[in-house]
Amino acid sequence: MSHVVIIGCGVVGAAIAYQLSLVKGLKITVCDRQAPAQDSTGAALGVLMGAISQKIKGKAWQMRQTSIQRYETLIPELEALTGRKIPFNRQGILMLLSDSSPSLEGISAWEKLIEIRHSQGWHLEIWDTAKLENICPQINHEKITGAVYSPQDRQIDPTALTLALVEAAQQNGVTFKFGVTVLDAPTSTPEFSSQFCHQLETSEGKIAGDWFVIAAGLGSTPLTAKLNQMVDIRPVLGQALQMRLGHALGNPDFQPAITGNDVHIVPVGGGDYWVGATVEFPSNGNEIPPNQELLESVREQAIAFCPELATATILRTWSGLRPRPEGRPAPVIGKLPGFNNVLLATGHYRNGVLLAPATAYAICEMITFQGMGSGESGVGG
After folding, report:
1. Order of all β-strands in the sheet with 182-184
2. Tens digits of residue pLDDT in 252-289
3. Which residues form the FAD dependent oxidoreductase domain (predicted)?
């Protein structure tokens, strides 16, 4: 029986653990220095931009498509297994277009994307201002020129998802070790072959394994450094806030996630909305103190789109560090160079929740098919 050891239990590590738990003949152990769904997973808004994204071909699009499709079966599967309710918004994503939209420019470009998506089996709609006002009267900004509606894209609560993945994996026999720090990863080099990692030395003793999956986000850099193959992943801070309006914006029966100018307004029920997120790069080393002015500018942008939010109370603010690969596309999925049994599933930057199911499939395939192909891949996100 092969023993797979997964390091990291954010949404990506948890998704890999659950997917592998469906494979017979595997023993699976997950270790993390803290509780599940911390760091970038706990800070994410869970907006799953698949069909509405500008990725149209190659691995970047395939991973999005695979994940969006998998979520439709994964959520009921997890809810049935665990009895947990996972907040999953099936009412789509509405992208507001304006003169200053940084996304695809012009209606003609969106019409071209709609044609491409139609050929791929996905549906998008362009709404003019009259239709937008009729369906979403809460949106009121003179610079909005229309919207693109993606009914098949989704939004999910990342923390609830991760906890359900952990519980379902546990029911399938996966062992989780939280509060465990990896101290070292001794290696050996058999004659005429790649290096081989045979165990982890942790704060709770040694963990031997046949496969090791590094899904530790920012923690992947020091881990790969211990293996003398450092993957450089840098932090990018994101801040968000939860606002309480006390009632639904616009039509209470139609509450899609709204996005515009890289600001998301996410309904979470009970008249509450998540709003975010900032994108803050380190200015000195890896330290990034949260910039309150940037968070306020995100709030002001949300209010500009939906003026009613000006009366909302801020319930809480939070922040988290996203793992962004330096000098290469995100995410980093594949074999660690020089190793036959160490896999990378890290550096998802702003798309960890979106790409978690596809990442889990990719890692599962590498393990069950004995890692067909070689080398490390950087899949553009």
Report:
1. 182-184, 199-202, 205-208
2. 999 999 999 999 999 999 999 999 999 999 887 768 99
3. 3-366
Nearest C-alpha neighbor of 206 from the set 176, 174, 227, 182: 182
The distance between the two most distant Cα atoms of the chain, rounded to a whole number of Å, is 71
The number of angstroms, rounded, from the C-alpha of 208 to the middle of its chain's C-alpha atoms is 29
Q: Specify the 3-state DSSP secondary structure of 301.
A: helix
Tell which residue, 11, 103, 91, 88, has the closest CA to residue 52. 103
Using the CB atoms, write b or e for 131-170: b if 16+ within 10 Å: ebeebbebbeeeebebbbbbbbbbbbbbbbbbbbbbbbbb
How far apart, in whole angstroms, are the C-alpha atoms of residue 335 and residue 345?
9
Phi, psi of 147 (to 5 degrees): -155, 160
Task: Give me the helix-helix angle, 158-171 and 11-21, nearest 10°.
Answer: 30
Give the list of residues 6+ apart from residue 7 with CB closer than 8 angstroms, or none: 13, 30, 31, 32, 182, 200, 212, 213, 214, 215, 216, 219, 223
Q: Which residues contact 344 (CB under 8 A, 6 or more apart)?
A: 213, 214, 220, 224, 231, 332, 333, 334, 335, 336, 376
Beta bridge partners of 241: 275, 317
Q: Are 273 and 266 in contact (CB under 8 A)?
A: yes
Tokens 């665990």: give the residue: 82
Label residue 281 exposed, middle or buried (CB < 10 Å: 0-12, 13-18, 19+): exposed
Give the bridge partners for 259, in sequence order. Answer: 95, 264
What is the CA angle 137-276-114, rounded to 5?
60
Structural tokens at position 319: 């922040």
What does the pLDDT look like over 200-235, one tens digit per residue? 999 999 999 999 999 999 999 999 999 999 999 999
- In order of their start, the domains of the chain are 2-85+157-232+326-378 (3.50.50.60), 93-151+235-324 (3.30.9.10)
Tell me which residue of 138, 353, 144 sits closest to 254, measured CA to CA: 138
CA separation for the pair 209, 40 (Å, rounded) = 27
Angstrom CA distances, 330 to 189, 231, 335, 352, stand at: 29, 12, 15, 10
Per-residue pLDDT reduced to its tens digit, 323-334: 999 999 999 999
